[in-house]
């Protein structure tokens, strides 16, 4: 830390300072905010990142460090480190549009909300995250599901260039012409190769969006499951319509709800794709003509910073039977967690049709090839609670529920091996789920660009490449 402070001056903060406290306080989850590094480095340029990395790894790495952009990963140590050095990239937040309006360059410290605030006024958008405060960095290297995914694929598929600081401090581009193997690996291979400081992303024309949230009583669950399966039928899938269905239990009022986030990015009011849901009794709705800035604010409002959060994930085929097994297992688990203070216990189901996963399957590391056009669904178990003393119990109940869902869906023959990295729990192995061929290729790329394995051994946060 002292060496870094000599090199980077006031860009290094120490425990007790206001800058240090503000950095920790900006993490999404309390588990991350309560991790205390020896110092925090806040680079303002890619060259600053290079200076920091070179200091940490020359002549040989001796100190563990963490790297964060938005700090939205929830588990302890994902992008912070106890007793090590945390590199906080939030000052790398520049947003620049190319003269022909086709490419937007994003510093990884920018939030998606700030990106949309910039682009909405220009009638442009990008395949970014859906919550205002989520950082550009993690979404860009972990996959990234957006409201525009059915039209364009994963967020990482729309990135044509990454600017990366490698373990020796060198700065490289990863694109189709320079380091194309690194470009492929960063599309889902996350933080195993270097520190991404900027992404250049394809932009597209975008007008108003019809979207919002619709609330349904849990008594409509059978209708909801049928509508959800029908929505995700490949032959009739509407590439302009996006859906997230949440089955949520809130301990504060002791009730369960179904919450549908629905967006039509063509601006069609009440499109046919959403008709099955329109026929279901609802309790309230925020559906209106809007834009990405306000939609991301709405999502953000449902996820207050500074609580205890966790998530876990798996992927199912979106048949009525598989969806029903998932929701039934969630419902049966509620009595085991309902007395935990502050509990919100939610199963989230997101359609993953071939329009998303197969569109650029060979161009990313996610391994979603050979599915024969099956409609899939990403399931996330999302958990919020109040007290650290319940952490172990939450973890146990989460593993129990995930094992139950996995078993029930497997018995139906409808479990897909894919584990979405950006929703994964610390105990899951998302990169392994990409398949042996892709894992072997990722290892080769890692060995080429990080032969000392600095980002494997000395950056313990996130998910590592494992056979």
Automatic annotation (TrEMBL):
A Pfam family it matches: BBE
Keyword Ribosomal protein: no
Keyword Transcription regulation carried by entry: no
Keywords recorded for this protein, A-Z: FAD, Flavoprotein, Oxidoreductase
Alphabetical list of InterPro entries matching this protein: BBE, FAD-bd_PCMH, FAD-bd_PCMH-like_sf, FAD-bd_PCMH_sub2, FAD-linked_Oxidoreductase, Oxid_FAD_bind_N
Gene Ontology terms for molecular function: FAD binding; oxidoreductase activity
Domain FAD-binding PCMH-type: 33-206
Superkingdom per UniProt: Eukaryota
PANTHER family in UniProt: BINDING OXIDOREDUCTASE, PUTATIVE (AFU_ORTHOLOGUE AFUA_1G17690)-RELATED (PTHR42973), FAD-BINDING PCMH-TYPE DOMAIN-CONTAINING PROTEIN-RELATED (PTHR42973:SF22)
Family stated for the protein in its record: Belongs to the oxygen-dependent FAD-linked oxidoreductase family.
Name the UniProt record assigns to this protein: FAD-binding domain-containing protein
């Amino acid at each position: 830390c002292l060496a870094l402070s000599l090199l980077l001056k006031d860009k290094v903060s120490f425990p007790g300072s206001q800058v240090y406290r503000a950095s920790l306080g900006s993490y999404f989850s309390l588990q991350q905010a309560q991790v205390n590094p020896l110092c925090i480095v806040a680079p303002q340029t890619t060259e600053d990142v290079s200076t920091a990395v070179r200091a940490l790894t020359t002549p040989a790495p001796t100190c563990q460090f963490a790297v964060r952009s938005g700090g939205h990963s929830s588990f302890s140590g994902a992008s912070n480190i106890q007793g090590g050095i945390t590199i906080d990239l939030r000052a790398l937040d520049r947003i620049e549009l190319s003269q022909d309006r086709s490419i937007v360059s994003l510093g990884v410290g920018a939030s998606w909300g700030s990106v949309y605030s910039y682009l909405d006024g220009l009638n442009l958008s990008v395949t970014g995250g859906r919550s205002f405060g989520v950082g550009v960095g993690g979404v860009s290297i972990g996959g990234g599901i957006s409201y525009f995914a059915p039209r364009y694929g994963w967020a990482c598929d729309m990135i044509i260039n990454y600017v990366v600081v490698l373990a020796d401090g060198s700065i490289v581009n990863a694109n189709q012409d320079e380091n194309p193997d690194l470009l492929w690996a960063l599309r889902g291979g996350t933080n195993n190769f270097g520190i991404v400081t900027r992404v250049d992303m394809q932009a597209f024309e975008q007008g108003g969006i019809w979207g919002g949230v619709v609330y349904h009583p849990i008594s409509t669950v059978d209708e909801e499951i049928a509508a959800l399966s029908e929505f995700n039928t490949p032959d009739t899938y509407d590439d302009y319509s996006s859906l997230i269905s949440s089955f949520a239990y809130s301990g504060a009022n002791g009730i369960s709800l179904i919450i549908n986030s629905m967006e039509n990015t063509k601006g069609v009011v009440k499109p046919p794709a959403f008709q099955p849901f329109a026929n279901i009794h609802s309790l309230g709705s925020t559906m209106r003509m809007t834009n990405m800035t306000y939609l991301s604010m709405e999502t953000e409002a449902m996820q207050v910073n500074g609580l205890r959060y966790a998530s876990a994930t798996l992927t199912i085929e979106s048949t009525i039977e598989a969806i029903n097994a998932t929701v039934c297992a969630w419902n049966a688990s509620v009595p085991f967690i309902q007395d935990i203070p502050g509990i919100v216990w939610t199963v989230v189901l997101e359609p993953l049709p071939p329009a998303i996963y197969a569109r650029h399957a060979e161009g990313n590391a996610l391994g979603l090839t050979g599915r024969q056009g099956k409609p899939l669904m990403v399931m996330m178990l999302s958990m919020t609670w109040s007290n650290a003393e319940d952490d172990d119990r939450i973890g146990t109940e989460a593993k129990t529920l995930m094992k139950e869902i996995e078993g029930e869906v497997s018995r139906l023959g409808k479990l897909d091996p894919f584990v979405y990295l950006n929703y994964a729990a610390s105990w899951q192995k998302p990169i392994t789920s990409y398949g042996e061929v892709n894992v072997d290729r990722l290892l080769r790329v890692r060995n080429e660009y990080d032969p000392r394995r600095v980002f494997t051994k000395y950056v313990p946060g996130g998910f590592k490449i494992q056979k």
